[in-house]
Amino acid sequence: MNKYAVIFDMDGVICHTNPYHTIAFERFFEKRGLNPTHEEYAEHMFGKSNSYILSHFLKRKVEGEEFLALEFEKEALFREIYADHISPIDDFPAFLDSLKTAGLKTGVATSAPRANLDLIMNFLKFEPKMESIMASENVTKHKPDPQVYLKSAENLGVDPANCMVFEDSVSGITAGLNAGMRVIGVLSSHKKEELPPCHLYIDNYLHLTSQTILDILINEK
Length: 221
Fold this sequence. Notes:
It is a single chain. By secondary structure, the protein is an alpha/beta fold. The protein is built from nine helices and six strands, in the order E-H-H-H-H-H-E-H-E-H-E-H-E-E-H. Strand 2 (105-109), helix 6 (114-124) and strand 3 (132-134) form a beta-alpha-beta unit. Helix 1 packs across helix 4. The radius of gyration is 17 Å and the shape is globular. The two termini are 17 Å apart. 43% of the residues are buried.
């Protein structure tokens, strides 16, 4: 079955990190006299790149050395806040093991910095189970551009049409669909009706099987 692959986003897909990103951004922006609403965060933070988020809320283009410094400040805050709260979305580890047992290739493709991914991978111990690992540093174009998923497919040696993506955001789902992949929407950050059409929607991995994934990949062409 190694002609098929499953690629996971991280935030909101492997772990429910978005509440902690919100806390980190609240502290970050509060220092600068800004207080975005939770509705604004939901629309302009979840699934978005830091370059977009910072530029949007600071209302100016943030780039170069300034961007790197501000991104590091915010993400260091996140890691400090989240370090004692790391936990996977229900049954993710067992589901990942079932995919490996079934012979599927697996990867992770996040818009977050590698340091965030390392924090979570080191705690949950899933790095050895991923044949492709992609973070924000590995791409020049961010979701909804499909670059991170197309590069993941290349790393895995699998045709994009034979890849399944797990995503929780509009931009991430759009990136997966733009890459020509099947997409499962994880309802951790948005309701089903707020997301683009997916092949399946889940709240967690409790009742999901590798056979369900294979059925979608093989039959829904």
